[in-house]
């Protein structure tokens, strides 16, 4: 299963988050609840429950929804879920602290530590671009950001989600053909802090970055092209995103 911003439940959660930023929590909660109602698999139920939990005023209700999110998340055998468990266990621990249950609070704190920074993603990994690159070449840090053209990036970014790389390729600046290359990190890498826990819990897009080069080992062609109208909506969302890039 691959995370997609064009998934119905993901879209409802995105719209809900946008309403939260506009200080409209009631309507945001309605959309999160609609996501729960529309969910058809454990990943979608996990995601909707997580956001419903964050919008509860009562600690016990919040705990029940976070535990519901965890219940469904544990059923999904996917790296996109595993790297969210640390923050999820931490939220559950905080609820138990507020409920004066130190034993369960400690148990969940310990589980949060166990999952923290436990990168186990083995790929394959992809990089989307409009550049025409050569197999065997290296991708290095130092390019200018697609989102803040004056910013020179200290890392090279990649993902284990092929369609996410395809979307990045289609959104990249330039007039070339969108292309997705299969890459291998040549050094250590980390979760992309611009995405991890910023909007969605953990790193569901399986997006990473490295200060070391990426070796190009092939080109992927079996990624899904998005409709022009969907790409335009995504570009508009990016244009309205004024958040600072963590470089």
Q: Give me the side-by-side strand order of the main sheet.
A: 1-4-7-2
Low-confidence stretches: none
Structure summary, number of beta strands: 7
* Shape estimate: globular
Which CATH C-level class of the largest domain is it?
A: Alpha Beta
Mean pLDDT: 87
Helix percentage range: 40-55%
- What gap, in angstroms, lies between the N and C termini? 29 Å
- Helix- and strand-based class? alpha+beta
Please trace the helix and strand order, writing H or E for each element. HHHHHHHEEEHEEEEH
Here the CATH topology of the largest domain equals ADP-ribosylation fold
CATH homology group of the largest domain: Rifampin ADP-ribosyltransferase domain
| CATH architecture grouping of the largest domain | Alpha-Beta Barrel
Structural key phrases:
Serine Threonine Protein Phosphatase 5, Tetratricopeptide repeat; ADP-ribosylation fold; 2 domains; three-stranded antiparallel beta sheet; globular
List the helices and strands and how they pair.
Blueprint: H1 8-21, H2 25-38, H3 42-54, H4 59-73, H5 79-82, H6 85-98, H7 102-115, E1 125-129, E2 138-139, E3 156-159, H8 162-171, E4 179-185, E5 190-191, E6 207-210, E7 214-220, H9 228-240
Antiparallel strand pairs: 1-4, 2-7, 3-6, 4-7, 5-6
Helix pairs in contact: 1-2, 2-3, 3-4, 4-6, 6-7
């Amino acid at each position: 299963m691959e995370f997609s911003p064009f998934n119905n439940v993901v879209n409802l959660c995105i719209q809900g988050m946008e309403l939260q930023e506009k200080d409209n929590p009631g309507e945001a909660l309605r959309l999160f609840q609609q996501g729960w109602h529309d969910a058809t698999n454990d990943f979608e139920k996990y995601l909707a429950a997580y956001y419903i939990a964050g919008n509860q005023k009562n600690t016990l209700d919040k705990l029940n929804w976070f535990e519901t999110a965890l219940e469904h998340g544990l059923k999904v055998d996917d790296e996109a879920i595993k790297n969210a468990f640390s923050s999820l266990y931490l939220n559950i621990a905080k609820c138990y602290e507020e409920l004066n249950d130190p034993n369960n609070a400690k148990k969940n704190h310990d589980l949060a530590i166990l999952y923290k920074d436990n990168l186990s993603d083995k790929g394959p990994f992809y990089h989307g671009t409009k550049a025409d690159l050569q197999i065997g070449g290296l991708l290095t840090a130092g390019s200018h950001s697609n989102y803040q053209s004056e910013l020179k990036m200290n890392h090279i970014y990649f993902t284990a989600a092929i369609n996410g790389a395809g979307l990045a390729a289609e959104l990249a600046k330039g007039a070339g053909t969108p292309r997705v290359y299969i890459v291998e990190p040549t050094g250590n890498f980390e979760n992309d802090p611009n995405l991890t826990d910023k909007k969605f819990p953990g790193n569901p897009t399986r997006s990473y970055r490295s200060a070391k080069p990426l070796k190009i080992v092939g080109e992927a062609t079996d990624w899904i092209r998005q409709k022009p109208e969907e790409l335009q909506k995504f570009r508009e969302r990016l244009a309205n995103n004024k958040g600072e890039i963590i470089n």
